[in-house]
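subagent[fold] <- orchestrator: predict structure for attached chain, return tokens only, no commentary.
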Amino acid sequence: RPVEVVVRPAKLGLGYGSFQEATKLKTNRTIEAEVRGLPTPSSTKETKKEPKEALVPTADALLSQKSWKKSISKKDENKQRNFISYQDVVVQQTTAPSTIIDMRGPTSTPIIPLAKLPTNSTSTTTPTPPPKVGEELLYNITFLCNSYEDQLKSTHSFVSSTSSKVTSLANDVHQLQSSLQKQHDKIDTLTQVLSILNTMEQDVSVGRSRKEGEEILMTQLASLEELFSVQELRDIQYDGMILPSLVSPFIECYYLPKYWNGKASLFDEKEESSSHVCREIVTNICHLAKCICSHAKDKEQHERTQTLIYTLVTQHVVPRVKHAFQSTLSWDPLVQVEDGLRLYESLIDSVMENEKDMQQYEDDDVKEEEGLFGIQNDDEDVIMELQEAAAAARNQTSKAKTLVNLVKEEIMFDVIYPRLYRTLHEWKPIIFNQQLQHPLHTWIVPWLPHLNHRSMLQTLLPDVQRKIKSTLTFLARRYKNDAADDDDIMDYFQQAKSVIQPWRMILDTQIIYNLVSESMVPRLGRLLSKMTIVISGKKQDWSRLDLVCELLDIGLLSQFDFISLVEGEVMSHWADTMHEWISSKMEKKKEDEGEVVNDVVDFYIAWRTRMMHPHSTLSNNNPSRVQQRQHQQPVSWLVLQKDEMICRHFHAALLMIQALIEKDEDALEDLTPPVKEEMNYRIVSARRARETRMEEEIQRNKRASAAAAADTSASTGAAGIATTRTQRENVDGTTTASFRDVVEEYAKQHDVTFHPRMGPNSTKDGKPIFLFGSVSIYLDSNVVFALRGVSKKWEPISLDDLVRCSL
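subagent[fold] -> orchestrator:
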């Protein structure tokens, strides 16, 4: 049979309007009934029973009127409303028949035993009668009793909670009353405090004497502290904030001078010494703090005193001193060095004295604790341990917050050091009246003992070194090399010495030597080269040589530079002069021979005595200085005595005298010294540097050989360990020369100077450049390259051609 299908209109929801779904159609319902075996639905339409119309319209009746639609006919609009009174509604309810509902429930089927079951399966069981009314009433009564019991329990819990709330509210009321009483007590206390503060303010303004003011202040502070408990004093921060603010007016009135908080400078000469005033202020503050806290317990007294002193000094002393150092109008680091130093040292000393007193007090407390614990004097180890533990605890608690650290942090690190550092960067050397104005040591060295905070010296000293170097450069430009006046030349060295000497014990020794070597040694070489050798030793001018010896003795000139200057510029010139003099006297007659020999011997003795024994022939012939020098030998004398080349010059002079006596011209010719133009301190320095390197290499090889010989497992390889790149020690003790040594020896054989080039352009591709006579050369892979031709190109050259080019 076909199934009817109904298409739902578009946008129509399920169950909306009078649309019948396919399942509600008669045909489909008949098919479904046949499939399920149900009776076929009747075709007769069931008539709906309309309910009796009530007085009060129901919701369905109101909706059926469709009064909410806009399209309502005018007829309905003119229809009058029907008003019903509440009496009619009550009458209808009372007149309506009452309905009694049986609550005993549906009928139940009893359980029948199997034996009593009927055989006929189609027979139906008869319904059992409903339960008895008594059982139903008993159930209902039990249900009501349980309900009321639950209500009683909930009511009891409500009463209990309400009573606890009443109790808590009563407690709250009591607490509020007690807090109200406390607030009234606080108001009374604050009223008393206000009266005491007014009295203190009036007493300060009256203008009493200092002693009377202190007594009144102590009394008022004691009465003020009695109004509060110990815990209340801690809560209101009495010691840290309130007490210093109460004492401050008294300090400003009696302890601080009028110019202290004014605009006047603390470094003004018209005012009283600021350092003395600062020390007195700190001392008075410490005394006042001890008097104020004297009524407290021992430990509390110490802590309160320290806190009060720290706060008062921080408020009244440190800011004023800090402002004095900060102001560029009041303190000039270049001029007012002593004034600033005295003010800072007075503040530091007064603060340290207070800390020493407090430290002594703490030590006394430690001794008392030792006595309480029964420690005997014999238990030294135990006492030392307790003292170390107490000191460590004190350091941990007070290291971060001590008055000395505060002064160093606030004044030295934040003010003085930045002023010195900035002034050092802005400072430039100036000559006025032949004197250097404000040299560095006059205004920096006095502060160095105090610049030990937070690595200040490590930052300041490199800048000082650069400024010293620039000062020496400025002096070199100020006093030119070609100055005709010897006084100007000596003035340069005196000025340079005065610049460097104060830093001798501050900067590293090697730094001092480098500064002198770069700035002063070249000028010393030129100064000594112009030294005139006088045949008569008594008329000889020793001032230039004395200057070099003095620089060595005071630690400014290194021994290497000193001996190079003396050998290259003085002894070589002296030996050349003596050789020329003796050569000119070789043709004298026999009757004048004794006088000539005596003159030569006197000349030799004068120089040897002056060089080797300077204390016996001082230039000023002062007996007291001679006696003093006999006990304190100068360094220059010892260096000259121990130097081999200086002794060789004097030995060669003796051989010249012997040749003069024996009239041996060949021996005198063999003793001819190098020409003055071919010998200077630079050449000597290069030779001595090479000799030093060779000696170090030999010593290194010897140590390597000794280490290899000591190692039994590597005894056969000792010779290989001692081998170096440029020089090796053979089995017989001889050494293998390098190519540079060969070139240098070849230059000596042909009387050609050979020394490294100094100054700029002294290297070629990282290799040192040498001067072979007047030719510039450098060595590479045992090949000599010379700078030749008009184009000035480096070309390889043989040693023979090199000698011909250098002549």
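orchestrator: received. Logging for downstream: The beta strands are 431-432, 435-436, 754-756, 763-764, 767-768, 770-772, 775-780, 783-788, 793-797. The radius of gyration is 60 Å.
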